[in-house]
Specification:
The complex is a heterodimer of chains A (573) and B (325).
Chain A lengths: L4 H15 L1 H18 L1 H4 L9 E2 L4 E4 L4 E4 L7 E7 L2 E6 L4 E5 L5 E2 L8 E6 L5 E5 L4 E5 L2 E5 L7 E6 L4 E6 L4 E5 L4 E4 L10 E6 L5 E5 L4 E5 L4 E4 L8 E6 L5 E5 L3 E5 L6 E3 L8 E6 L5 E5 L4 E4 L4 E4 L7 E7 L2 E6 L3 E2 L20 H37 L1 H15 L3 H11 L4 H9 L3 H15 L3 H8 L4 H37 L10 H11 L6 H29 L1 H6 L1
Antiparallel strand pairs in A: 1-30, 2-3, 2-29, 4-5, 5-6, 6-7, 8-9, 9-10, 10-11, 12-13, 13-14, 14-15, 16-17, 17-18, 18-19, 20-21, 21-22, 22-23, 24-25, 25-26, 26-27, 28-29
Chain B lengths: L2 H30 L14 H10 L6 H13 L13 H36 L4 H15 L2 H15 L17 H6 L2 H34 L2 H8 L4 H26 L6 H6 L5 H10 L3 H29 L7
Classes of the chains: A alpha+beta (573), B mainly alpha (325).
Chain lengths: 573, 325
């Protein structure tokens, strides 16, 4: 096949490039990066700005130094736990249940419900009641779990056995139900308030009565002897979330905004303790010897050291909802949806997550857009200015050249990075100012190079011939001389694309990049600012590797363009 | 043109450049920060004190008067008092500049001491696997942003192996009598090692590639054929005959690099908490400490121009072929 001469001329440089293996690799890699930028929304697995959260059946165990993360029990949050004798039972969201004998392994229970379970209670003889959303009540009798029909629609939050046969349940509509396990009958107890305040938790007190706590500091004592429910004052008007009473009568009530109410023994009064943190507390536990634990949101666990509550280090920020203490073993259970921050790479997050739980793979994919935009736009601007200045200076010579080249000299006196910094800082970061900062000084090199080429070209016979033929200056400059410096222009373009990409990354790394934009330098800026970069290698590595690969591929291409631009190099190889 | 005439002309040019840069800087700052003392409100200064400072910098005067005042002060080396340090700006800037220069010069020297012989060796092994690998590594460090390589180096040597200090110039606390006392210690060298290495690796690419390419050109020349014909060892031809003649473009590049060294590498200073001038400019403009930012930049530019000038003059003595034009 014969090609027209101008096409054949165009394929020449391309053939030379194709012979250079590094240039071919460079072209391929750059192609991949460009594709990445174009199809970023399709390629990214998550919204790069979305804060990712996960739910987890988290288990933390008290170790020597603090609370340590143990293997999770399933993907759903754990809400409550109870034990009696050797048996322990945990219930959670979505009808999840776990049981174990002694210190054995946890086994998943097959519960006949999908509803969220909020509370569980055991009798010494092994009867178990668990209650939850939508009036779900399950009774384990013998070995089987039987659904119990609730007397009416209710969201149940707490359950406690008063004796082997009867249990008390409380719900969010101020329901207080007495349940007879032998007959399956319910008795609805009238609350002394009766305004529909949610009740959250119930515990058996010494002397056989039950103490119920709920929102706005509500506390109700139920006495099974006369069936009466009376209001009790605990000394707080905050929402109370959980109550635990030890066998000996020590009691702990926890609630919102770090509320901690403690009673040292059955006869003592309630005292409101100072909490070292004011986050919501969701579960409390107190022993006969006065030892007490409170657990709450964001992995907050406090322990009573005899005189004050102390925050104990925990290995996770999960939201804790229940405490299970069996002998020496202490477990804290959770967790609702918590921000999945600083996760190492996994199948869900290929490059892990950052300190705000954002997906780093998606951020890296989106970062290519800004890098290439600034890289190519900046370089085009630079080459446009530099080539024209070089052409004009070299062609006209005389005073024009002096003025232009003195300007270039002055620019060589301005340090690039500090100047870009000052420009961006003085005029607020924006995409335009970043591109401007990147390109305002860089054209000095291009202008010098092009000028020196033009100086020799303008003395060539073909330029003289054109001049004799009456061609105008513009025509000679742009139609006769310019095509001859074109290879050099492309070479400079390639080099400056690389320089611009690094310059943009540098500005972004210093926190001066285009605001709101996701860029590779910006990811590293976040990493450094958060302080987590010293441990989270998955956060540091990918953006740097991407910058390096992109610039490297551009340099490889520029090397073979150099061969095109400078035929002497061709002879050498 | 005579040598003396050339020198005179170059010095005039340098002064002219500096004046233009000072002018650009002045108007840039007046455009970007119309009231530089606004930042002082947060410092707890009342309107009266601010007015005093405004008067000190002549901010109430018409623009042209401010400009003249600025130029006059700059010529006398009088840059006012830093807002954040409450100390004369000039003292701060000179110390920071020295810190930057020692880092940059050490790195540049290291890069050229390694790069030049390595480039010559690569050209000798041209086309081999070693050649390709060498080019690849040189370009790789040239392509990797320094703040990233710096962070990785800190991760490996500072955090992972914990054998290297990762920030500052000295182990704190220390007291030194003057700057030299601070520099001439093993502790300082230990602190400088990582940042110098990172900057050197970045600069390594250019002497390496320029040397390699010029050597390839030199190999084609007649005197190399001649040396071969005489039966000299390949090694001697490489280092004694070819390398010497290939040095000129490398020296040119070295001159340009040293000329711009005062500009420093802001990110390296930031990553390694190196108290250099670049980091100072960044902090100054972030805290709107405009006397410090303005003076830092101007002194930095003056230093770059002076270095360029010195290098140019030195160059004319090194290479007699350079004509005084």
């Amino acid at each position: 096949m014969t090609l027209p001469p101008f096409l054949r001329a165009a394929t020449g440089p391309l053939r030379i490039m194709m012979q250079d293996r590094l240039a071919v690799i460079g072209l391929c890699v750059l192609g991949v990066i460009i594709a990445m930028a174009l199809f970023a929304p399709l390629l990214s697995t998550h919204d790069p700005r979305h804060i990712n959260e996960i739910e987890d059946g988290s288990v933390l165990q008290r170790g020597a130094e603090g609370w340590e993360l143990r293997e999770s029990l399933g993907p759903l949050a754990l809400n409550d736990a109870a034990h009696h004798g050797g048996e322990s039972i945990i219930v959670g969201r979505g009808g999840m249940g776990w049981a174990r004998e002694g210190a054995g392994d946890w086994e998943a229970l097959d519960l006949p419900t999908e509803a969220d379970l909020h509370a569980v209670a055991l009798t010494p003889e092994g009867r178990v009641l668990t209650v939850g959303e939508d009036g779900v009540i399950l009774l384990r009798e013998g070995g089987a779990w039987l659904p119990v029909e609730a007397p009416e629609e209710a969201h149940l939050r707490g359950v406690v056995w008063l004796d082997e046969a009867s249990a008390l349940m409380v719900g969010t509509g101020e329901e207080i139900w007495l349940f007879d396990a032998d007959t399956g009958a319910f008795t609805e107890i009238d609350s002394p308030v009766g305004r529909g305040f949610p009740l959250q938790s119930v515990a058996l007190d010494v002397g056989g009565t039950a103490l119920i706590v709920g929102e706005r500091g509500l506390a109700i004592r139920y006495d099974p002897d006369d069936g009466s429910a009376t209001l009790e004052r605990l000394g707080s008007s905050r929402d109370l979330n959980h109550i635990h009473i030890s066998d000996g009568g020590a009691a702990l009530v926890v609630g919102e905004r770090g509320t901690l109410l403690r009673r040292e023994d059955a006869d003592g009064g309630w005292s409101a303790d100072d909490a070292p943190d004011t986050r919501a507390m969701r579960a409390g536990w107190i022993g006969d010897d006065g030892q007490a634990i409170a657990a709450g949101r964001n992995g907050l666990i406090m322990e009573w050291d005899g005189t004050a509550w102390q925050i104990v280090p925990t290995q996770s920020e999960r939201h804790l909802r229940a405490l299970l203490v069996v002998g020496d073993e202490m477990l804290a259970l959770g967790s609702d949806r918590f921000v999945s921050r600083l996760l190492p790479p996994s199948r869900e997050h290929w490059f892990g997550t950052d300190h705000l739980g954002r997906d780093l793979f998606s951020q890296n994919v989106h970062g290519s857009q800004i890098a290439l935009l600034v890289g190519f736009l900046g370089a085009t601007l630079v080459v446009l200015i530099g080539t024209n200045v070089g052409l004009i200076a070299g062609y006209y010579r005389g005073r024009t050249e002096t003025v232009l080249m003195r300007t270039v000299d002055v620019m060589y006196g301005i340090p690039f990075e500090p100047f870009a910094l000052i420009l961006v800082l003085l005029f607020q970061p924006s995409l335009t100012i970043v591109i401007l900062a990147v390109s305002l000084l860089t054209w000095r090199t291009v202008a010098r190079l092009i000028r020196s080429q033009v100086l020799s070209l303008r003395e060539r016979p073909f330029v003289k011939a054109a001049r004799v033929a009456g061609a105008s200056d513009l025509r000679i400059m742009y139609l006769h001389i310019f095509p001859n410096v074109l290879p050099l222009v492309f070479l400079e373009l390639a080099i400056i694309v690389g320089v611009s990409i690094i310059a943009e990354a540098t500005l972004s790394f210093l926190g001066l990049g285009p605001p709101q934009a996701i860029s590779w330098g910006g990811i590293l800026h976040d990493a450094r600012l958060s302080g987590a970069w010293r441990t989270a290698w998955w956060w540091n590595l990918p953006p740097g590797i991407l910058i390096m690969t992109t610039v490297l591929s551009v340099f490889f291409i520029s090397r073979s363009l150099e061969v095109v631009a400078n035929p002497r190099l061709r002879a050498r190889q | 043109m005579s040598r003396r005439g050339y020198l005179f002309k170059r010095v005039l040019q340098a002064i002219f450049s500096l004046w233009i840069i000072a002018t650009i800087l002045f108007f840039l700052f007046r455009m970007g920060l119309p009231d530089p003392t606004a930042a002082l409100v947060t410092e707890g200064l009342n309107a009266e004190q601010r007015a005093a400072i405004r008067a000190q910098f002549g901010l109430e005067e018409p623009l042209w008067r401010q400009y003249v005042l600025f130029l006059g002060n700059a010529v006398q080396g009088e840059f006012g008092t830093s807002f954040s340090y409450r100390a004369p700006v000039a003292d701060i800037v000179w110390e920071r500049l020295a810190n930057t220069m020692i880092l940059m010069l050490a790195a540049i020297v290291l890069a050229y001491v390694i790069g030049v012989p390595l480039g010559a060796w690569l050209s000798w092994r041209r086309g081999s696997r070693a050649d390709t690998t060498g080019i690849f590594i040189g370009l790789m460090f040239r392509s990797a942003p320094m703040f990233w390589t710096g962070m990785i180096a800190i991760l490996i040597f500072g955090v992972g192996l914990s054998i290297m200090p990762t920030s500052g110039m000295r182990t704190l606390p220390y007291d030194a009598d003057g700057w030299w006392d601070k520099i001439l210690t093993l502790d300082f060298l230990w602190h400088a090692a990582l940042p110098v290495l990172i900057v050197a690796l970045y600069y390594l690419g250019s002497p390496l590639l320029i040397m390699r390419n010029t050597m390839l050109e030199v190999y084609g020349e007649d005197f190399i054929e001649m040396a071969r014909a005489k039966g000299l060892q390949e090694r001697d031809i490489l280092y004694k005959h070819a390398a010497r003649n290939a040095l000129l473009p490398v020296v040119t590049q070295l001159a340009v690099t040293i000329g711009l060294a005062a500009g420093g590498q802001v990110v390296v200073e930031v990553v390694f908490s190196w108290p250099g001038l670049g980091r100072e400019i960044l902090n100054a403009v972030r805290t709107s400490d405009f006397p410090l930012a303005q003076a830092s930049f101007l002194i930095m530019a003056a230093f770059v121009i002076t270095l360029n000038l010195l290098v140019d003059i030195l160059y004319t003595t090194l290479d007699p072929r350079v004509t005084f034009q």
